[in-house]
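TA notes. Do not distribute before section.
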Amino acid sequence: MRGAALEHLRPGPVARARKSPYLRESMGESTGPSRRVAVDAIILAFKHSKLAGITDSLRKMVDASFGDMVTDGTLDLDILWELLEEQDAFDADAAKGPLCAIKSWEERLGAPVSLPQALSNLSDTEVALIATKMRISDSDVRRVFESDEERAERMSNMLAAQEEAAERTSGGKHLELAWYERKEAAMGAGAVLLVSLAVVGITLFGGRAGNWEDLDPNEFAEDIPVESAQQLGKQVGAELVDASWLDGPDDARRAAMKTALVNLQSRNVEVFYIRDSSGAIRATAQWYGNPPDVKIVFR
C-alpha cells in the first residue's frame, strides 16, 4: 500500500490531469462529494486530533487517492484508514475521533460516508458521541462547507480589499497578496482546538509570510507576459512585465487567464492572479460554481 500511495504522489501528466481537483467534475462524471470540500473536511477533522502532525502529508495522499475513495457516490473511509496505517505516527484510537466527525458530516458533504471496517462495530449513537467530543467549532465547519458561490464571493472580496489597501499605501512600497495558514489554539475541557483557516493578509514584498514556492510562469502562462510567479497554498500570483497586454483583445486575455489556471490544476490551485509593477491586482482567474467554471475579472 505504501508503494501505491507514493506512486500517486508522483503522477505523470496524464495521471495529474485525471486526478486534478476539478477535471472529473467538469467532464460531467459522477464524483459523489465535492473533492475540495471532502479533502478540506478530512484535514480539518485530523487537525483537531492527536494525529494533527501528519496532516500535511495526509493532504497530499488523500488528494492523490481521492478518486479511489469515492465508490458509487459514497466516500469510503476504508481507503483513508489504509493511508493512515502507513504513517509512522498512526494511532487507531486517535483516528476514531476525526473519522467519526467526518461520518457525522454526511449531510453537509451531500454524500454517504462509509466508516472503515475497523470501526464498523460502532453504533450510530457511539459515532455521534465520539464526533461530539472532537469539539470542532461551528465557524471552522462552516468555512469548510461553504458553497462554491460563497467561497468565490469571499475570495473576490479579499482580492478587492488587497487592491484597496495597495492604493492607500504610500512610499512606493511593493505589496502583494499573501495567503497563509492561521492556527488558533484554545484550551477548554481538556481539549486543544486547532483551527486552520485560509485567510488573506497584506505583506510587504520581500517580507512575505508563509512558505512561498517560486514557479516558472512559462510552464503554465506562456501566453501572458509575466515573471516572478509564486505559489502559496491554493493561490498563485505573478508580476506582469508588459502592461500593454491588458489593452489587448478581451477574448484572448480571458482565454490566456483560463488556460493558466487550468494548467495549474495539478498543483491544486484555485486562484491565479496578476499584479502590475506597483503591486496592484490587475486580473484574477478562479474556479467558481458547480459544475466548476472559471471566473475571470480584470481590474
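Switch to the second chain here.
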Amino acid sequence: MFNIYRYCRITGVDVRLTVCPDQTGPSAIEMAMARLPASEAVNPTPGFLQTVRGSVYCLTPSAGAPAKTITQSYASFDELGNPVYDRSLWQNETKAASTTLDGDEPVVAVAVRSINGQAAVVAINLQVTYHMEWFDLEADDAALEIVGRDRPQNGICNHSRPRDHQSDQGFSVCSMSEKVPPRRK
C-alpha cells in the first residue's frame, strides 16, 4: 500500500489467543493479555497482566479441557476516550519498517504459563488483525498512465493541439485539472 499512499496509522488491533491444553497432563494453564507501555512489557506473567486495568485473564484445567480463547480489541483512544487523530502517529514506509519502540508506546502483551510448575504441553494460536487508515495519495506517472506529450513541464500544461481535437482515450491529469472560464457573448 505504500506504493499508493504516503502515510498510514493503526486505528485498532483485534487480538485473539487460543490455547489447546494437552488432554493427559495434570497441570492447569493460565493465560492473559493486556495493553501496557513497551517499557513494562519485557517479561510479563499472566499474574502480572491480570492486575492491569482492562486486561483479559483465563484459567483452565488441563485434563480434558477444551480449547480456551480470549479476545480483546484495542483502539487508538486517548485517556479521555477520544479518538486520536494526531499527525505524530502517522507512519511512512521508513518508520513502519523500523522496529525501535519508544518506552511509552503501547503494546499488547500476551502470556501463557503452567500454574503448578509442571511442564504442560499446549498448542498456542495467536491471531492479530490490524485496522489501518491510509493518507496522502501518492501515485507516480506510470500508475496514472500520463502520456509523454501531456506531461506538465514546470507545473504548466502544454498541449500541442486544441482542446476539442484531443482524444479522451487516455487518462491525463493535466487535462482534468485544467479549468477553462466560460466565454461571454
